[in-house]
Amino acid sequence: MPRRKRRFASRVRNYLRGFLAFLFSNVGVIVLVVAYTVAGAFMFQAIEGASEIERVHNMTLERNYTAQYLWQNVTLALNLFNETALKHSIGIELNKYQSKIVTAVRNGWDGGRSSRQWSFSSAFLYSLTVITTIGYGHLSPRTSWGKITTIFYALLGMPLFLLYVTNVGQLLARWFKCLYALVCLCRGCPGFTRRRVVRLRTQMEFSEAESIERPEVWRPSASDSDVTPEYRMPPYPIYHHRRADYMRSTSMPQARSARSPRPVRGVSVPPYAVDSGASSDFSYVTFDAQTITVPISVCVAIMVGYILFGSMIFGLWEKWDKLDGAYFCFISLSSIGFGDIVPGERVYTPRIETSFIVCSMYLMLGMALVAMCFNLMQEQVIHYFACLKRALKRMCRCKR
Amino acid sequence: MERKQHSSLHGSFRSKDSSSTTGSDPREKIKDCLRKFIAFMFTQVGVGALVVCYAILGAAGFMHIEKDNPDEQLENVKQWRKSCAEELWNITVSINIFNESVWEQNINRVLKVFQNNITSAVHTGYNGRSAEDIWSFPAALMYSLSVFTMIGYGNIVPKTVWGKIVTIAYACFGIPIYVLYFCNMGKVLAQSFKWLYITAHECSRREDALFDEGEIQPIKRKITVPSTACLWVISFYILTGTIMFGAWEKWNYLDSTYFCVISLCKIGFGDFVPGANITDSAGGSHLKLVINFIYVLLGMGLVAMCYNLMCEDVRVKVRELREDLKNCLDDITLKITICMNDTKYYHQRQTRHIK
C-alpha cells in the first residue's frame, strides 16, 4: 500500500514536471507566444474597435460642416464675380480643413479605408509589434484604456518573447550546426573523416594537445565537448548497458549492442574508452555536431539572405521596390520599426488580411533566426578570444 | 553581452600583463599608452563618450543627406489645394447659386477627393513641414538615437535612397556600440546601486549587528538587491519623466506615462514624440529634443541596471526555491515513511498487546 501511494505521488510529480518542461520547451513557448498574441489581438480589437467607428463618423461630420461653411460664409457673402477674392478665401478655408485632416490622421483616423483599421489580423500584428518591441506605430491605441492595457501587455509580453527568442534561437542554432557539419564540412562522409583523422594525428604529433583544445570555461554548458569525454559520456554508457541487458535477455549477439542507433552520429566511442585517459585523443576522431563553431561570415550571409528573401517576398506582395523591401526588413528585424513602410498600408487593397499574416510570420521566424545567428556568432567570438588568450599566454611564457 | 564581457576581460588581462612587464623604453611607453587608451575606451566613460560621439556624427551625416532633398509632397499638396479651389470655383460658376443642396453635394464630392489625397500624402510621410524644418540638428540627433537604440519612433524618416542605405549601415555599426554601452552602464550602475543599498542596509541594521558579529557577517555578504527596489527605482524614473513631459508638452499624465514606458521598452510607436507637434514652433522644440535624448539614454542605462540586478535576484530566488522544494519533498517522503513505519509499529504493538 505505501508503495502504491508513493508510486502514485511520483507519477503525479512526473506528469507535473513533464508539463512544466513542455511549457518551457520550444513547442510550449511557441504555443504560449502565439496564444498570448491572439489574446492580445482580441483584447485590443475589443477596446479600440469601438472608438474607431466613432472617429470615422466625426470626420464625415467635419466634411459636411466645411461644405456648409463654404456655402454660408464664402459663396453667399462675397460677390460671385470677383474671382480672385473668392479663390483666396476658399484657399484659406481649404488650408484650415487640410490641417484638420492631418491632425485627424495623426490621431489615428484613416481616410476612407475599405476595411476596418482594427481588424483581427491588424490587431494581431499590433500586439506582435508590442511584444517584439518593434513598434511600427502605424496603429496605436487612442483610448486611455487601450494605452493602459498596452503598458501592461508589454510588461508581461516582453519577457515571454525574450524566452521564445532565446529558446527557439538555441534550437535553431543546434539544428543549423548539424546541417552545417553535414553539408559544408562533409563530416558525415566516411572517407573524409578518415582523411581528417590522419591529418589531425599528424598535427597532434607536432603540437601539444593543449593548443587545439578549448578550455571548458569558455564553452557554453549546453553543448558538450569533444575533449573531455567524461562530460559527454554519462548518458550513453547507461544507454549501452541497458541496451546490452536487453540484448542479453533476448539472447542476441553482444556485438550488435556496440553500434546502437543514434540520430546524430558522433558517439562512436565505445563506452570503455571513457575511463582510459590515454585514448582521449580518440575522441577527436568522432564527431559531435555541437562542438564545431560556424564562421561569422556564414551567419552574416544567412541574415543578408533572409533580408533579401524578405525584400523579394514583399516586392511580390506589396509591389515595393527592392530597396524599400530590404529597408523594411532590416528595420523590422533589428526591432527599430519606424513604421513609415508597413505592409497593408495602401489605402485600398482587398488583400490586407493576408499581408498582415505574412508579415507576422516573417517577423516571428526572422527574430528567431537573428537570435540563432547571434548565438552562433557569439560562440565563434568567444572561441576566437579563447584562442587569442591562449596564444598570448604562451607568448608570455616564451618570453620568460 | 557575452562578447563585451570577454573583451573587457581580455582587456584587463592585457593590462595586467603590461603592468608586470613595464619597461622604460619609449616604445614600451607608447604601447602602454595605447593599451591604456584601449582599456579606457572599454570603460564606462569611454563607451558613453563613444555613444554620444556616434550619435552626433550620425546626426550631422543624416542632416547633410536629407536636408537637400527637394520635397515633392509639399509641392503636390499645394497643387492639390489649388486645383481643389479651382474646381470649387467652377462648380460655383456653373451651378445655379440658389440651388443649395446640389451645390453642397458637388462641393462635398470635391472635398472628398481632396481629403483622400491628403490622407495618402500623410501616409507616405507628409506632415506639413519642409525638409529643412524637419531635419534640424536636435531632430537629427533624436533620429540617430532612435536608430541605434532600436526605439524607432518613426516621426522622422529618411526619404532619399541614400538616407535609407546610410541608415542601414549606421544601424549595423551603431547597435553593437549601443549594446556595449547598455551592458557597461548596466553593470556599473548595478554595482553602485548595490553598494548604496548594502550601505543603507548596514546602517539600518547596525544595532543588531553589534550583538553577534560572528553570525551576521557571513550572511551579510550574500545580500542581493530585491527586485522590488529595482521596480521602485524604475517607477520613480518614469514618474519623473511623466511629470516633466506632462508639464512641457501639455500632455495629460496617462499620455506621458505611456510615452515614457513605450520609449524605455524600446517599442517606440511614435504617436507621442516630444517636440513633434505640428503646430509647435521649431525653435522651442530643440531643447526638448536634447533633453529627451538625455532622458532616454539615461533611462536605458537604468533599465540595464535593473535587468542586471533582477537577473541576479531571480537566480538567487530560483536557487532558494529549488532547495526549499527539495527539502519539502524530502520532508514529505520522510513523513510518509515514518507514518508507514508508525502504522507498522502500531500494528506490531497491537498484536503484541493482544498476545
Can you walk through the features of this model?
The complex is a heterodimer of chains A (400) and B (355). Chain A is mainly α and 400 residues long. In chain A, 68% of the residues lie in helices and 0% in strands. Chain A has 12 helices and no strands. In chain A, helix 4 runs parallel beside helix 12 (352-399). The longest helix of chain A has 50 residues, at 26-75. Chain A starts with a helix and ends with a helix. Chain B has a domain at 1-42. Chain B is mostly helical and 355 residues long. Chain B contains 12 helices and no strands. At the A-B interface, helix 1, helix 2, helix 3, helix 5 and helix 11 of A face helix 1, helix 4, helix 5, helix 8 and helix 11 of B.
Number of strands of chain B: 0
Query: How far is it from the N-terminal to the C-terminal residue of chain B, by CA?
Result: 75 Å
Helical content of chain B stands at over 70%
- What is the overall pLDDT average of chain B? 79
Largest contact between protein chains? A-B, 71 and 72 residues
Element-level helix/strand string of chain A: HHHHHHHHHHHH
Class by SSE composition of chain B: mainly alpha
Structural class determined from secondary elements of chain A? mainly alpha
- What is the count of β-strands of chain A? 0
* DSSP strand content of chain B: under 5%
Largest sheet: number of strands, sense, barrel closure of chain B: none
General shape of chain A: elongated
Mean pLDDT metric of chain A? 73
Largest sheet of chain A: none
How would you sum up the global shape of chain B? flat
